[in-house]
Amino acid sequence: KRQCSKFNYEDIREVHKRRYLLQPMALEVFSGDGRNYLLAFPRKIRNKVYQRFMAFATGIADSAQQSVAGQKRTANVEQGASLLSSLIGETSVTQRWVRGELTNFQYLMHLNTLAGRSYNDLMQYPVFPWILADYESEQLDLMDPAVFRDF
């Protein structure tokens, strides 16, 4: 049974082209209340739906730019120049993480989003780094900071 969700165009904050089943056939829609939706379409229809979102969603700038963690960038994560601008500069995601404004988890989630990964599609599950430093011990003391890598 399929679930139907409704949301107002005014609530849309971000729309990203995504892969689904390793094919470029989905859109991920982020709403102002923190929810997001991965919508899969036949391949030829996705871009038409994307253009419709960009035309009607008033929360997204007319220039098809939007905010990811306070960064202006294009809605299509496939465009490398805007990805780079989200990672460097004084107000970048990386600088916000360095200043302690983002947790490690938040930073990694932003990096995964910028890389085009979605936790809504397990075929491209977000990548998180190895956190352990000790791979030799028979038993790990999880209270010992030396067991973990220092990011």
From TrEMBL:
<dbReference type="Pfam" id="PF14844">
    <property type="entry name" value="PH_BEACH"/>
</dbReference>
<dbReference type="InterPro" id="IPR023362">
    <property type="entry name" value="PH-BEACH_dom"/>
</dbReference>
<feature type="domain" description="BEACH">
    <location>
        <begin position="82"/>
        <end position="151"/>
    </location>
</feature>
<dbReference type="InterPro" id="IPR051944">
    <property type="entry name" value="BEACH_domain_protein"/>
</dbReference>
<dbReference type="InterPro" id="IPR036372">
    <property type="entry name" value="BEACH_dom_sf"/>
</dbReference>
<dbReference type="InterPro" id="IPR000409">
    <property type="entry name" value="BEACH_dom"/>
</dbReference>
<protein>
    <submittedName>
        <fullName>Wd repeat and fyve domain-containing protein 3</fullName>
    </submittedName>
</protein>
<keyword id="KW-0677">Repeat</keyword>
<dbReference type="InterPro" id="IPR011993">
    <property type="entry name" value="PH-like_dom_sf"/>
</dbReference>
<feature type="domain" description="BEACH-type PH">
    <location>
        <begin position="1"/>
        <end position="54"/>
    </location>
</feature>
<keyword id="KW-0853">WD repeat</keyword>
<dbReference type="Pfam" id="PF02138">
    <property type="entry name" value="Beach"/>
</dbReference>
